[in-house]
Amino acid sequence: HESKIILDLWIFIGVLCAVGGLALGFADLFESLAMPLIGLLIGIGAFVSGQVIRFRPKTIGGIIGATIGLLSFTLQCDLWTWQMLTLSLASVVALVIPGFLYKKSIRNGV
């Protein structure tokens, strides 16, 4: 049951990123808004996933990832470079680090 909820959530986020990317592309806003939007959605998805599986590091990673996504909307300098870096940071904080911690907790039987 939990895996179905998480699967549906990430499918929805993927579709939302695709549709949002197309809409931003047609509105000539892709370069300035796409990366922060994706970072924000990754953070929200990680937060909800953490809540569903009741794994606190994933929830906290999602909050931090969403915050990084929100903050990257404010970047005014070399957009592509810095927004790509903030998207990478949000992904690592919200997905990669909690994933390693979850794998470790499963191995330890916690």
Distinctive features:
0% strand, mainly alpha, globular, single chain
Layout: helices, strands, pairs:
Layout: H1 2-26, H2 30-53, H3 56-71, H4 79-107
Helix pairs in contact: 1-2, 2-3, 2-4, 3-4
Could you characterize what this model shows?
The chain is mainly α and 110 residues long. Helices cover 85% and strands 0% of the residues. It contains 4 helices and no strands. The radius of gyration is 15 Å and the shape is globular.
Q: Topology as H/E string?
A: HHHH
- Uncertain stretches: none
Secondary-structure-derived class: mainly alpha
Radius of gyration based on Cα positions = 15 Å
Tell me the overall shape: globular
Number of strands: 0
The largest sheet is: none
**What's the number of helices?**
4
* Arithmetic mean of pLDDT: 88
Fraction of helical residues: over 70%
β-strand percent reads under 5%
User: Roughly how many Å apart are the termini?
Assistant: 21 Å
What's a concise summary of this model?
The protein has helices at residues 2-26, 30-53, 56-71, 79-107. The protein is mainly α.
